[in-house]
Amino acid sequence: RNDVILTYLDHGHLVTYFNERQNFIDDNFLLAPDPHERLNDVNLIYSGWSYNKALEILHEYSVDYIYINEDVKKFYNIDDLEYIQDGECIREVKRNIYKVVC
Fold first, then answer.
1. For the chain, what is the HEC assignment?
2. pLDDT at 46
3. How many Cβ atoms sit within 10 Å of the Cβ of residue 37?
4. Structural domain of residue 39, as residue ranges?
5. What is the mean pLDDT of residues 75-100?
6. How many domains does the chain have?
């Protein structure tokens, strides 16, 4: 249960509460180290185009899973992660849940 799950800022507490997993960011992210960089990195994961940059960020924070729900899709105006087809290290394991596998 040491997995780190990246999700939308407003849903970080839900990840921690219901899944008993560490969230990447939540409403208290200002208490985390480098809060603005962390928020920018979340934005790059969800709205960026670069597979390599996304993987670099995911490894930097030891993120194990990415969760995308309708709120994320609306906020970032996306249907899915743009770069998801560009490599083998991020795989969809359930609908809207991606695992970082390498």
1. CCCEEECCHHHHHHHHHHHCCEECCCCCHHHCCCHHHHHHHHHHHHHCCCHHHHHHHHHHCCCCEEECCHHHHHHHCCCCCCCHHHCCCEEEEECCEEEECC
2. 94
3. 12
4. 4-100
5. 91
6. 1
What is the per-residue burial (b if ≥16 Cβ within 10 Å, else e) of 69-97?
A: eeebeeebeeeebbbeeeeeebeeeeeee
CA–CA distance, 27 with 9 (Å, rounded to integer): 6
- Tokens 């596998």 correspond to 101
The 10s digit of each residue's pLDDT in 35-75 is 788 889 999 999 999 999 999 999 999 999 998 989 899 99
Residues 32/93, Cβ–Cβ less than 8 Å: no
